[in-house]
Amino acid sequence: MADTTVTVTVIMRAKAGYEERMRGMLKNMIEHSRMEEGCLQYSMYESMIYPLIFMLYMRWSDEAAFERHMLSSHVKAFEELHAKELLDGPYDLKRWLSMG
């Protein structure tokens, strides 16, 4: 049976002075996302060297679960209401499939 698990990384840079607000928004996103069907892991990391750089690491049961997540109200709210205010440029989202 093929592994359908999808791993997703999102790297984002907060605007200077917005780090605490970014942490709060991401913690809220984690709280809601971890309750979603198909969420296997949802973690937040902050760069040890560059304090404005954050990474989300997610594992979803399959692509459909991740797509539902991207359409969820909390993701939409972040993208529509907060991303432009908090982010210093676009975020870098990558999907990964297990190679074994």
Structure write-up:
The chain has helices spanning 19-33, 63-70, 73-86, and strands spanning 6-13, 39-46, 53-60, 92-97. Helix 1 (19-33) packs antiparallel against helix 3 (73-86). The protein has 100 residues and is of the alpha+beta class. Strand 2 (39-46) and strand 3 (53-60) form a beta hairpin. It has a single domain (6-97), classed as Alpha-Beta Plaits. The protein is 37% helix and 30% strand. The model has no long low-confidence stretch (mean pLDDT 92). It has a four-stranded antiparallel sheet with strand order 2-3-1-4. The chain is built from three helices and four strands.
Short description:
The protein is an alpha+beta fold and 100 residues long.
Please outline the major beta sheet: 4 strands, antiparallel
Major sheet: arrangement of strands: 2-3-1-4
First-residue to last-residue Cα separation: 12 Å
Under CATH, the topology can be stated as Alpha-Beta Plaits
**For the record, what CATH class applies?**
Alpha Beta
Supply Rg. Answer: 14 Å
Structural class: alpha+beta
Sheet-strand content, in percent, reads 25-35%
> Tally the helices: what do you get?
3
Gross geometry: globular
Question: How many strand units?
Answer: 4
Oligomer: single chain
Q: Low-confidence parts lasting 5 or more residues at pLDDT below 50? A: none
N-to-C SSE string, H for helix and E for strand = EHEEHHE
Mean pLDDT across the residues is 92
* Structural domain count: 1
Q: Identify the CATH architecture.
A: 2-Layer Sandwich
> In percent, how helical is the residue content?
25-40%
